[in-house]
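Dear Dr. H.,

I hope your travels went smoothly. While you were away I took the liberty of generating a structure for the chain from your last submission, since the lab meeting agenda had it listed for discussion. I wanted you to have the full record in hand beforehand rather than looking at slides cold. The sequence, exactly as received, is reproduced here:
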Amino acid sequence: MRSKKRILMKIAKVEPIPVAYPEPNDYNATRYLCLVKITTDEGVVGWGESITQFPEANPATAAIIAGMAELLIGSDPVNTEALWRQMKDRAWWYGYGGGIASYAISAIDIALWDIKGKILGKSVLELLGGSVHERLPAIADSHAHHESIPAMADEAIEWLSTGMKGMKVGLGKRGNARLGYEHDRDVEYMKAMREAVGDDKKIMLDCGIAIKWDVATAVKRVQAFDEYNLEWIEEPLGAWDPEGYASLRAKTQTLIAYGEREWNVAGYERILETGTCDVFGV
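The corresponding predicted structure, in token form, is as follows:
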């Protein structure tokens, strides 16, 4: 029996939708993201999203999405790879290695896959090859805000009371916590967290952009954290310092995480080649 032939559709409309909202995990600081809504001539709608984070990046991302529309309108939305390559080619001058162009392309790509799944009657998970794991552990991801370390310990207990397997806490963030700046306070915080949540919960720390440790500071800090079974520490030396990370990794037990500021496979391959990263940030 012949398989049912799908009805060919065409992209009819591409709409960027910049959004601003208060982020409860970051002291209600305003965060920015750009949605994209793509509609076919048959009325099938796909949604995509890209976090732009800052006010100046949001309209820039929306402008690139609007500019990409002329490549997309009239095309078959199921041809996701071909359309992705066309967008990458379009951005050759201003987005070859990543940047704001990648925000726009990513949001559009997500929306196209959403449409593709709806047209073919499959989830995007199925289209990408299916699940690798049936279940994954969930962790609480937030920032420390309070000046009082006991108050932050109580907050951690509250986070994990929902069944979370661990927590990742940002250092150098808004609020009164002042974490990431003073050795003794950081170690006191880590000790209090471990005592509060017990030995069976994972604790991860994420060094924000405000944290500017040199290698010696990072080594001293992480060696002190080692006593409290820190699972991993993210970007203690920033986005790219292979020599520094090699030294830190050789002198400490805690896993090293970085990579979230990479834009493509080549960037992650470059990190892999250094042998200095235990956990990828994506």
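Two observations you may find useful: The chain has two domains: 11-127, 139-280. The beta strands are 11-23, 29-40, 45-51, 139-143, 166-171, 202-207, 232-234, 255-258, 279-280.

With kind regards,
E. W.
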